[in-house]
Amino acid sequence: MEQFVNVTISGFISGMIYAAFALALVLIWRSTRIVNFAQGSMGAATSFIALTLIHSGQSYWVGFIVALASGFVLGAVIERVVIRPVERGPELNAVIVTLGLFVAIEAIIAIVAGNSFQSFPAPFGLRGFSVGGNTISLTPNGVFVIAAVLVTMVLLIGLFRFTRVGLAMRASAFGQEVARLLGVRTGRMLTLGWALAAVVGSLSGLLIAGGGLVHPAYMEGIIVYGFVAAVLGGLDSPVGAVVGGLVLGVLLSYVSGYLDSSLVGLAALVILMIVLLIKPSGLFSSRAARRA
After folding, report:
1. For residues 235 and 29, is the Cβ–Cβ distance under 8 A?
2. How many domains does the chain fold into?
3. Quick one: pLDDT band at residue 290, thresholds 50, 70, 90?
4. Most buried by CB count within 10 Å: which residue of 15, 43, 94, 239?
5. Could you tell me the pTM of the whole model?
6. CATH of the domain at 66
């Protein structure tokens, strides 16, 4: 029973990290209708910025805030300089560009920071809580991860449902010409969408790095699992991203804990295939939203 509880909790925490990255994909999709595969390497870049500040003597929270701010700037610059020239062409063009960005940013990180593994501090303790004389795998840092993802989800729901900016971002994504006729500055909205998505991607990079080892490619795994989580929940739904991340994290934790850790990647692929065959739009995505 103790093993089951610990495996479930570990999967829950991992699922929350997947959910954080899935939220970044949902945000970029809802605001631009593009799946940004460079989101992971962008998050890694800002995490290394935070690590540099921490190594220079700054506190974790200074690095945390600077990383999020750097993500905002990086996302806006990439949209303006790299994505803007191709976003009016076929949708596949932008996706291919994001794949190229993914490789290029990883290479730049390796050139600047090196390929060696580096320890990344955690903002809170990594020792599990004691319950009934037993230590469970839920840690103070894990509680921080859960809280950070839930707050991000609530903020995204509020952005798209209750603010004029969120409505303008969605209008720009679905129909730029119509949005312009209604007075929406679509260029600014698309840039804002990329910038905010990069902030959430930076958050996911910081969450997965906390208390672990980082290197230029440390986000590659989270890209795959975060994408599966986003598809599982529906690319249009922040709630679906979190639920998809949790379901995926717990299932993969069971596979790793009770079968074999080498089967985790295969299990993620099987889950993705099942979702695409049964409900391609995701568990929480409406059919109406897809037609739009």
Report:
1. yes
2. 1
3. very low
4. 43
5. 0.88
6. 1.10.3470
Alpha-carbon separation of residue 283 from 33, 237, 243 (angstroms): 19, 9, 9
Nearest residue to 100 via CA among 111, 88, 92: 92
| Alpha carbon distance, N-terminus to C-terminus of the chain | 47
Q: How many CB atoms lie within 10 A of CB 116?
A: 10
SS3 per residue for 212-259 = CEECCCCCHHHHHHHHHHHHHHCCCCHHHHHHHHHHHHHHHHHHHHHH
Query: What average pLDDT score do residues 274-291 get?
Result: 69
The residue segments making up the domain with residue 223 are: 2-291
CB neighbours (10 Å) of residue 266? 11
What lies within 8 Å, CB to CB, of 155 at 6+ separation is none
Which amino acid makes up residue 83? I
**What integer pLDDT is reported at residue 285 of this predicted model?**
66
What angle (nearest 5°) sits at the alpha carbon of residue 263, between those of residues 259 and 268? 115
Residue bearing tokens 């299990």: 267
